[in-house]
Amino acid sequence: WIEEKQCFAIGLDYDKQQIDSLASNMGHCLWTGIVDEEKAGAVASHLASPEMFSGWGLRTLATSMAGFNPMSYHGGSVWPHDTAIAIAGLARYGFIEEAHQLLQGLVGAASFFGNRMPELFVGISSDGLGFPVSYPTSCSPQAWSAASPLLMLRSMLGFEPNVANAEINLAPNIPEWIGSIEVRGIPLMGGNLSLIANGDSLEVLESPDGLTVVRSARRPH
To answer: What average pLDDT does range 27-40 have in this prediction?
Structure first.
């Protein structure tokens, strides 16, 4: 659960009492759509806060937590796929500004890793250093980190196919610092989908026969 001044119970202590912690797991809850509408704003605020967002990506544990360590594998480091999931969750609930904040940080970090996202990197703030710090034993490349840009692209396009009903929901939210995005040859329903998106505008260049393109204000739950 999430309330304005409460945190997630991420585990149990020795006495089986809930351990309240601000952790990146809350972004996963937005992604799955299980967060109540009236509580989603508190989650979004936490994810975009300086305690959670390092400037390069989402920390696995907030700096305000007693167990925070930016070098810890799960206790303060930044995982690109974790950040991408939070971006998708924020976009799903319509928190576009917060989604773009995390997106810009992760895109900025990518250039320091040869645009090949590592498994994780250190959760030191971008205010302290002008570059993200590599994690000594991080795998690079790593499968779900390599998939992170694709999830971020899907989040920016609001891309939700519904093949059973021969529909695709699109709700583009391209940030100004990216400009326009052109995607061609997406295989779908025996054909190809090609489009150009700029801001919240959309132009479909090619679509499979029988596919209905639905413009959505936000991604559906």
So the answer is: 95
What does the pLDDT look like over 75-100, one tens digit per residue?
A: 999 999 999 999 999 999 999 999 99
165 vs 60, 169, 185, 212, 213, CA distance in Å? 38, 11, 21, 9, 11
Q: Residue 121: CB partners within 8 Å, gap ≥ 6? A: 56, 57, 77, 78, 109, 113, 132, 133, 134, 135, 138
Distance CA 160, CA 134 (A): 34
| 3-state class (DSSP) for residue 64 | coil
Contacts of 186 (CB under 8 A, 6+ apart): 192, 193, 194
Asked whether the beta carbons of 138 and 79 are under 8 A apart, the reply is no
